[in-house]
Amino acid sequence: MSNAVSALNSASFEGFATVTETGLRGMITLRGDLSSAKLKAAVKAATGAAIPDVRRVTTGKDGMAAWMSPDELLILCDYASVNDTIATLTAKLTGEHALAVNVSDARAVFRIAGDGAREVLAKLAPVDLSAGAFQAGDFRRSRIAQVAAAFWLNDDNSFELVCFRSVAQYVFDVLKVSAQPGGEVGFL
């Protein structure tokens, strides 16, 4: 049996911000009625996180929940515990119209950190990333240059970005170009 590896083997680039592929991350697409008490209890039991508000991410003891659409969450957890997390969700959602699917190996995750992190991302995504408009816990589904992505701002002012594994190299490359020393815009 082969060992699981991340898309870019934790590749990293140091520019006016640091871009790092974070390695393996457990990710579950959870579809269902987000207002359902049963679904709320299932997410809480599996991650410790509450159901997030629209365009937000919440954090719990064992994972995170990110709002993807009116009937979809992205559950993030430790890669090694993703099957246990799905088992907890499935057990708690018995009788509920819902779906929990492991998408961990189909995605890649990047961290953009440092004083220029907002600027690196703002040059690539059509989202207002100014400090007044995008704050810790905010989450967006958007695009990075030409591909789909989702990202959020952590409490330490770093961003995490999720994209399809098939475009991980492209995303890493455009993030590196955006973070090149001398490419600072100085607007954010």
UniProtKB/TrEMBL annotation:
Q: Which Gene3D superfamilies match?
A: Heterotetrameric sarcosine oxidase, Probable tRNA modification gtpase trme, domain 1
- One Pfam family for this entry, by name? SoxG
Query: Source organism's superkingdom?
Result: Bacteria
Supply the InterPro entries for this chain: SoxG (IPR007375), TrmE/GcvT-like (IPR027266)
* UniProt-recorded name of the protein: Sarcosine oxidase subunit gamma
